[in-house]
Amino acid sequence: MNSTTSILTDTHGRKHSYLRISLSEKCNLRCTYCMPHDGIPLSPRSHLMTADEIETFAKVFVDHGVTKIRLTGGEPLVRKDFTAILARLAKLPVKLSITTNALLTHRFIEDFKRYGLHDINVSLDSLNAEKFKFITRRDQYKKAFENIEQLIQEGFNVKVNAVLMKNFNEDEIVDFINLTKARAINVRFIEFMPFDGNAWNKEKLVSQAEVLNRVTDHFGVEALQPLPNEKNFTARNFKIEGFQGTFGIISSVTNPFCDSCNRIRLTADGKLKNCLFSNEETNLLKPFREGEKLEDLIDAALNAKKAVRAGMTDFDQLTNPDLHSNNRSMIAIGG
Ligand code: SAM
User: Fold this and answer.
1) CB-ligand 1 contact for 27 (6 Å cutoff)
2) E strands present in 227-293
3) Which DSSP symbol is given to 53?
4) Measured from the CB, is residue 120 less than 6 Å from ligand 1?
5) pLDDT of residue 254
6) Is the CB of 132 inside a 6 Å radius of any atom of ligand 1?
């Protein structure tokens, strides 16, 4: 690093201003594509970042150019000291957001408001209670949907994320988009990604073209309005004419957005991942506890970031299980 370059700029010139922090490896759902069937070995508590460490780490990242922090997990709201962590992060000059399954959001409405957390992404893969139960292995659809409605009514900026999987929920694409008719939300269809133990298979992918075909078959070609891409976008966004909300397609597998990537991830056990698809992690927590300087470790991790999807430049590499089988499942990385 020279003195004019931030430690958060990688060798490809990308500035990383968006940090996702996983607060917990635990979750109150068991989504089949996220959590391996037999669960994951949980880290001993002493190996997880404390609230103090999360604050210290976040401050270093913010000092070096991070302007947005997303809290995730596991399920971030199962962490007992969630509000204490939120209160600490709210002191930093950073935009706070969260990704949650919404099952516990009713308990935190006032905390979110008090500490300025306005952007809430909720994961919901089906609008059918039976299918929800099948994919999450928990019978909690009613609570999840009620809480999403509450968040909208309370004025939060809500995005609903649905992972699309063939023969599971691609027949619900129109139902999901109909949610945006009278609700000013953004529904995002996410491509199913390969992780350790999640039975990924490229036949289960639903492509952007398939989504758009279903949309135009139902609503008509003229009703589909493409929206301009946002800076550092991950979703290609659209709107149905006359609808209050919008919808987007996140095609990280078939059509990645690595050129504009500004994201880095910190796992609950204090490891930095420079790319979601990378098998490699940089342990920040252990060396930090031994007195090493965080800046040097972060700089090295960013310099190792590959131009495209952890070096897997073509689709065949990505679909080769040998190349991603060491990548922890999403529950452990923090989605
Ligand atoms: N518990 C929270 C939730 O449910 O939103 C936060 C963590 S969850 C791991 C974050 C996001 O990762 C969710 O939107 C989930 O759908 C997504 N995710 C997990 N595994 C995935 C996979 N294999 N492919 C695509 N998205 C995945």
Assistant:
1) yes
2) 236-240, 246-250, 263-266, 271-273, 282-283
3) H
4) no
5) 82
6) no
Confidence of residue 318 (pLDDT cuts 50, 70, 90): low
Describe the chain by its helix, strand, coil percentages, rounded to 5.
35, 20, 45
Adjacent-strand bridge partners of 263: 18
- Return the pLDDT at 280: 87
What's the 282 CA to ligand 1 centre distance in angstroms? 22
33 in contact with ligand 1, CB cutoff 6 A: yes
Q: How far is the CA of 208 from the centre of ligand 1 (A)?
A: 19
CA separation for the pair 189, 234 (Å, rounded)? 11
From the CA of 162, give the closest atom in ligand 1.
16
Residue of 20, 138, 163, 202 to test ligand 1 pocket, by largest number of atoms within 8 Å of CB: 163
Q: Pull the structure tokens for residue 83.
A: 């509000």
CB atoms within 10 A of CB 222: 8
* pLDDT tens per residue, range 51-101: 999 999 999 999 999 999 999 999 999 999 999 999 999 999 999 999 999
| Most ligand 1 atoms within 8 A of CB, residue of 27, 34, 191, 309 to mutate | 34
In one-letter notation, the amino acid at residue 153 is Q
What separation in Å is there between the alpha carbon of 34 and the centre of ligand 1? 6
Helix (H, G, I), strand (E, B) or coil at 266: strand
Q: Which residues of 244-265 are buried (b: 16+ CB within 10 A; e: fewer)?
A: ebbbbbbbbbeebbbeebbbbb
d(CA 198, CA 27) in angstroms, rounded, equals 16
Distance between CA atoms of residues 213 and 91, nearest Å:
46
Does the beta carbon of 327 sit less than 6 angstroms from any atom of ligand 1? no
Phi, psi of 251 (to 5 degrees): -110, 70
- Band the pLDDT of 200: cuts 50, 70, 90: confident
Q: Are 193 and 252 in contact (CB under 8 A)?
A: yes
**Pair 324, 195: CB distance under 8 Å:** yes
User: H or E element: which one contains 122?
Assistant: strand 119-123
Neighbours of 205 (CB within 10 A): 19
How many C-beta neighbours within 10 Å does residue 57 have? 21
